[in-house]
Specification:
The protein is an alpha/beta fold and 289 residues long. Helix content is 54%, strand content 14%. Helix 1 links the parallel strand 1 and strand 2. Helix 1 runs parallel beside helix 7 and helix 9 crosses helix 13. It starts with a strand and ends with a helix. The mean pLDDT is 98.
Length: 289
C-alpha cells in the first residue's frame, strides 16, 4: 500500500481520495476550505494537513484535483506548495483539467526538484468519481505511469498512457470537444421530438438501440425532456474547459467551428442564470426560446 496525499476535495477529489483510503492506501488530505477536509476526515478517517507541503511530506504519490491552471500553481508552488514538501523520487499526479502548457511546465519544475510528474485529467463526472469508474487520460514517462497506475486504479475503470507530458491534457480536450458536439446534437434532437409531438420516452428507448446511442443519450436525454438541469457537470466548468480547447486549437491550427459555437450557447445559458446547471442545459435555450 502506498503513502499518498490528496490535494483538492471538491465533487471529484472528495470521492477519489475516499477510494484510495478504502483500498488501504495511507491518505493525508489538504483542502483550501478546511471544513471540507474535516468532512472528509469524519467520513473516511486519515489526517488533514495545514498546507499542501505538509500533506506531501513523506508521500510516494501526491494527487492534485483543483479548478484550473492558476489553482494548480497555487497548491504546487511556493514554500507551502506540494513540491516543497515532496521527497526525491515521489510522483506528482495532476487530475485537474488544465492546459497542456501547464503540464509541460510542471513536468520541468518537478524534474528540477527530483520529482516525477504525470498529467492525468479524468472523465466520468461526479458519478464516475463516486463509483470509482473514472477514465484517466495520462501523459508522462512510461516507467512513472507503471508505478502510479495500480494506485490510480483505486478509482478508475480505465487508465491509459497517451504520450509524454501534456498528452493527457490534450486527450481531455478531445473528450470535451466531442461531448460539446454530442450534447448540442442531443438537445436539438430532443427539442425537435418534443415539438413534433413524439413520445420522448419511447423515442429514446428506440434510437438508443441504434447508431445514435451515446453516454449522453443514456444519461441525459430523459432529464433534458423533463427540463431538469440542477445536477451534474456545471456549465461554468465546461466553459473553462472549452476555453482551454479553443486556446490550444489557436496554437496548433485545428479548426473547431462547432466547439466555438457551442461555447457561445453555453454563454447564453450562463446569462440565463445557469452557471451551475448541468451541461445538458443546452436544451433550455431551445425549449425556451
Amino acid at each position: 500500500m502506498a503513502k499518498t496525499a490528496f490535494i483538492g476535495l471538491g465533487v471529484m477529489g472528495f470521492p477519489m481520495a475516499g477510494h484510495l483510503k478504502a483500498k488501504g492506501h495511507e491518505v493525508v488530505v489538504f483542502n483550501r476550505t478546511g471544513a471540507r477536509a474535516a468532512a472528509w476526515i469524519a467520513k473516511h478517517g486519515g489526517r488533514a494537513a495545514a498546507s499542501p507541503a505538509e500533506a506531501a511530506h513523506g508521500a510516494e504519490f501526491v494527487f492534485v484535483c483543483v479548478g484550473n491552471d492558476d489553482d494548480v500553481r497555487s497548491v504546487v508552488h511556493g514554500k507551502s506548495g506540494a513540491l516543497a514538501g515532496m521527497g526525491k523520487g515521489a510522483v506528482l499526479i495532476d487530475h485537474t483539467t488544465a492546459s497542456a502548457e501547464l503540464a509541460r511546465e510542471l513536468a520541468e519544475e518537478a524534474a528540477s526538484a527530483g520529482v516525477a510528474f504525470l498529467d492525468a485529467p479524468v472523465s466520468g463526472g461526479q458519478a464516475g468519481a463516486e463509483n470509482g469508474k473514472l477514465t484517466v487520460m495520462t501523459g508522462g514517462m512510461p516507467e512513472i505511469f507503471e508505478r502510479a497506475k495500480p494506485v490510480i486504479d483505486s478509482y478508475a475503470r480505465a487508465c491509459v498512457l497517451l504520450g509524454p507530458n501534456g498528452a493527457g491534457q490534450l486527450a481531455k480536450m478531445v473528450n470535451q470537444i466531442c461531448i460539446a458536439g454530442l450534447l448540442q446534437g442531443l438537445a436539438e434532437g430532443m427539442n425537435f421530438a418534443a415539438r413534433a409531438g413524439l413520445d420522448g420516452q419511447k423515442l429514446i428507448e428506440t434510437i438508443s438501440k441504434g447508431a445514435a446511442q451515446s453516454w449522453q443519450m443514456d444519461n441525459r436525454a430523459h432529464t433534458m425532456l423533463a427540463g431538469k438541469f440542477d445536477f451534474g457537470f456545471a456549465v461554468d466548468w465546461m466553459r473553462k474547459d472549452l476555453a482551454i480547447c479553443l486556446a490550444e486549437a489557436k496554437r496548433n491550427g485545428a479548426r473547431l467551428p462547432a466547439t466555438a459555437l457551442v461555447d457561445q450557447f453555453y454563454a447564453q445559458v450562463q446569462a440565463r442564470g445557469g452557471r451551475r446547471w448541468d451541461t445538458s442545459s443546452l436544451m433550455h435555450l431551445l425549449a425556451n426560446d
